[in-house]
Amino acid sequence: MAIPKVLGIETEYGIAGGPELDPIMASSIIVNAYAQRGRTRVNWDFEGETPELDARGLPSLTSFAPIVETHLANTVLTNGARLYVDHAHPEYSSPECRTPFEATLYDAAGEEVMRRALLVANESLPTHQAITLYKNNSDGKGNSYGTHENYLLTRTVEFGHVVRAMVPHFVSRQIVVGAGKVGAETKYGLESDPAFQLSQRAEFFEEIVGLETTLKRPIINTRDEPHADAERFRRLHVIIGDANMSQVATMVKLGATALLLSVLEDRGPDVFPSPPRHPVQAVRAFALDTTLTRTVPCEDGRQRSAWDFQDELWHLANDYAHLYGGQAVAAEDEVRVILVQWREMLDGVRDDADAVADRVDWVAKLRILHGYQGRYELGEGDAKLRAIDLQYHDLRAERSLAQRVGLRSLFDPDEVREAVHNPPSSTRAYFRGQCVARYPDQIVAANWDSVVFDLGQGPLQRVPMMDPLRGTAALTKDLLETSPTADDLLERLDR
Amino acid sequence: MTEQERIQKQRTERAAPVHDDVSVDVTKGDQLKADLDDLLDEIDEVLEENAEEFVRNYIQKGGE
Predict the structure, then answer these.
(1) What's the gap in Å between the CA of A145 and the closest CA on chain B?
(2) Half-sphere CA count of A151, side-chain side, radius 13 A
């Protein structure tokens, strides 16, 4: 049976400016700026219901020898997220969320965290060293950085079945959730010399399956690091995706993928459309085709376009939701919204792109490009067009084109502000975020599956969280609210 | 609590939270055409002054 699709997004932001134009230093400045300022802004307002606590849901306590990590720019936020420097980029890894809608909210909160960090950092820098951030995935010069999704799967699903089932989706979903890109930048892409591609990332993929993320990027990543009980869980680490500015696109990207993974868990791989014979060529070819008519040969002998794949996959997910319910992904209403939006976007990109220009990033971006190009009669290689591409993803309000193009929003600013400070209540991120907010001075480290306390005497104490669905508000809110100190908390957990 | 109740309770807790307000704001769509014209009118004020230099200087190290 399909297990709850706990999920989240990690985003490496593009970064420019800073002292000596050093991206690692600039990224550290961003993360540290937020870490220092963020702590004073912890929201302590926890009024409201006090659900009954089920102590049997609590993690057990163990001690362990002190291991102190000393990464300077690596912090856990009160909303359960991780904010750190990864390579030469600031990265926000969202807290584990229970539904696509919730994960989209925490992705939006990540943008807001970065915007605040940017403001604080730039207050202390001279104007000529000001830092800028971009929620995109490439610099147009052959360098790419990732937006990775994570989905919880049951360990009983064979990895080979994940590959069999999901390749058709990962090569074709870009027609709905691609962020769009001016030009090309890899050897393969430059051969075709396109004016525009549907996806930022497609041309960087070189393998079908593999462990790499920076070289020979695979469509299906094999990293087997569940950050949870490995006997029970897998984590599917999806590296083939674009950072979306459109919240609806983020929700559909997560929702469609989570639904299809649930189909796989409940019905197996054979119900999925036959994969392309050459998936790497397919994902690149689909990215180059804004007419959405290009077809590729599949293993069953048929030819399919990216649209054909998405249409079959939508029907698969829709039938599944009707027959099995979509409870593994979200409540009924939310599943319906995901399916309706996915369908509208899919029909829109083929039949009436303007109708979905308020949801599909590549369509929204292409409209600006065409509009600007038409008005000023610019050639394809004009730097202004590349500037439009970059500034579509610019996080600064005064420079952002995404903020000006009329994208639909899913949340009002208050909800996003709330999510900047407070964790989702539905996963262990609740316990992590609450501990960081309530006992910051007693926590020496926290990661996805544990929180480590230093009470000042005795060994460090590690609270493991091997099940992403424990540590929820329902299970731990009362305990946390009635434990004024970390000592109280640990004493009661130990009991 | 009996074992049965406990399992039932766990199931309930593990069920997806219901968001009352999962909806997509549809009012913006109709405005889109007018918005694009407005955006193109003001876009030169939003774009970096020296596009060529801006684009040339945007160089990232690979990540992930």
Answers:
(1) 4
(2) 31
Query: Per-residue pLDDT tens for A327-353?
Result: 999 999 999 999 999 999 999 999 999
Measured between CA atoms, the residue of chain A closest to residue B33 is A354
B10-64, pLDDT tens digit by residue?
Answer: 444 456 776 666 666 555 555 666 778 889 999 999 999 999 999 999 999 877 7
What residues are paired with A151 via a beta bridge? A7, A236
| CA nearest to B26 within chain A | A408
Helices (H) and strands (E) in chain B, counts: 3, 0
Report the distance separating Cα A382 and Cα A386, nearest Å.
7
From B61's Cα to the closest Cα of chain A, the distance in A is 6
Classify A484 as helix, strand or coil.
coil
Q: Which residues contact A315 (CB under 8 A, 6 or more apart)?
A: none
Q: Which of A143, A181, A345 to mutate to test the interface with B (most CBs of B within 10 A)?
A: A143
Q: Mean pLDDT lowest for which of A60-74, A136-150, A467-481?
A: A60-74
Q: What is the pLDDT of residues A416-435, one digit of tens each?
A: 999 999 999 999 999 999 99
Residue A213's pLDDT band (cuts 50, 70, 90): confident
Q: What SS3 class is residue A230?
A: coil
Answer whether B51 sits within 8 Å of A386, measured CB to CB: yes
**CB-CB under 8 Å, B40 with A371:** yes
CB contacts of B55 in chain A (<8 Å) are: 140, 383, 386-387, 390
CA pair distance A417, A109, nearest whole angstrom: 7
Tell me the catalytic residues of A.
86
Exposed/middle/buried for A189, CB within 10 Å: 0-12, 13-18, 19+? buried
Instruction: Please judge whether B18 and A331 are an interchain contact, meaning their C-beta atoms are less than 8 angstroms apart.
Output: yes
- The closest alpha carbon to A141, from A99, A187, A172, belongs to A187
Q: How many residues does chain A have?
A: 495
Question: pTM of this prediction?
Answer: 0.90
Tell me which residue has tokens 């001279």.
Answer: A126
Q: Would you state the structure tokens that stand for residue A361, as one six-digit string?
A: 């990033």
Q: In sequence order, what DSSP letters do the residues of A233-277 get, joined into one string? A: EEEEEE---PPPS-HHHHHHHHHHHHHHHHHHHHH-GGGSPPPBS
Tell me what ipTM this predicted complex has.
0.87
Angle at A135 between CA A152 and CA A394, to 5 degrees: 160
Q: Are B63 and A85 in contact (CB under 8 A)?
A: no
Per-residue pLDDT reduced to its tens digit, A30-77: 998 888 765 533 222 222 222 222 222 333 232 222 223 334 578 889
- pLDDT one-digit tens code per residue, A214-257: 888 999 998 888 999 999 999 999 999 999 999 999 999 999 99
B63·A337 Cβ contact <8 A: no
State which residue of chain A sits closest to B53, comparing Cα positions.
A383
| Beta carbon pairs, A and B, within 8 Å | 170
